[in-house]
Amino acid sequence: MTTKLIVFIGSSLLLLNFTDLFAQADRPNIIVILCDDLGYGDLSCYGHPHIKTPNLDKMAEQGIRFTDFYSTAPVCSPSRVGLLTGRSPNRAGVYDWIPPAKEAKPDAREQVHMRKNEVTIPQLLKQAGYATAMAGKWHCNSMFNSPDQPQPGDAGFDHWMATQNNAAPSHENPRNFVRNGTALGQMEGYSCQLVVREGINWLRTQRTNAPEQPFFMYLAFHEPHEPVASPAELVSKYGSVASTEKEATYFANVENIDRAVGSLFEELEQLSIVENTLVVFTADNGPETLNRYRGASFSYGIPGPLRGMKLWTTDAGFRVAGIMRWPARIDAGQTVHHPVSALDFLPTFCQLAGADVPTDLDLDGVSFLPALENKRIRRTKPLLWAYYNALNEHRVAMRHGKWKVLAKLDLPEKFQNLTTKNFATIKAAQFIDYEVYDMARDIGESKNLLENNPNSKSRLRKKLKMFYQALLEDSHLWEVRQ
What we know:
The chain is α/β, with parallel strands linked by helices. Helices cover 27% and strands 16% of the residues.
């Protein structure tokens, strides 16, 4: 028997044993909690010096805290579409945040939505027998609660309570929630608490009617995105450590998220479903820059040691908090440094649920199950982002193993959408500058390894170019109507 054959058989047995370990268990319930604009450094378990997040700290202690967890985009709408589909949001034609449709625009942004032909996590899990629900921020279409575009129910959610974008007029007593197509008017409370309450009420009904049925629940908090509002008693706690009352309000906003998560965990205990429930906590992108726009006066989120902020393709734009707890299968107290992405949710959840993934579905994520045992994930594609409206000059980024590659395109302007009108310009753009960082040694992307040797790392540059070109060719274009 050759050495290669021995290695192949050994690797196959390890894979089979690992897969069998999870196949033997009951199919888990799955809950994804997504925050909006939460900074990598905003939780106490990620190093914030003042904000108290005891429930999330406990969640990390009882499970895994990921240091290299990535969202699928550095801005909200594409990040959510990528999470739900397991594919780069560019493939779905969602390149930037989606404004509400009011009138035709030169770049066709009034048309943008997650199209009906996109395959989503709740659709596939529902086909496998799961109950599905979502509550919170949707932001996957421009025509919310309209028959002209798909809504959360069309994406596979049995039950939903959502807003198109932000909670309005703020997190306190919002009045723009819609439940299963019916507008709810003004509600009393704070958005994250209302979202968790909706999830809990749905869970209680679901467990009463079908106690053995597994479920998938997606809770998309509006916090700590502007416009920020927080409970007064929490704000007062931070008066002595915050530089302004608005900073104290932001700190309180993050702690209010933690309170909401604590309420959810208490309910899981009451329902006796903690052991076999996988709970994932993460964020859609990095923190907003203070006063970047007129309404961002409460945005005191921090990126920790990362470079950049939201809307950047440096790591602070999309490296986010990632915490997972699943007592039945995850050993407590782990800190995992292997890169994991929200793109990995769909293939992983489908594997755990025994759900069939269409063979012709071109996924960009892979199963993250090896990372639950602190093992490296074997990817067929690198993690790749192409954000044509980035605040920094490098529009394209790639994470491949420990390496981070950034690239500039010689584009004449920024773009918020790809259309039949501007695609020729974008396709003709060439890479004119690269930066390469060793993320295992340089989390802040401070030492460009090409600075003194621009011809090195050619393999990485070729890989980025190859996968970018493939993504560009598969990016959906919108038809300009003007």
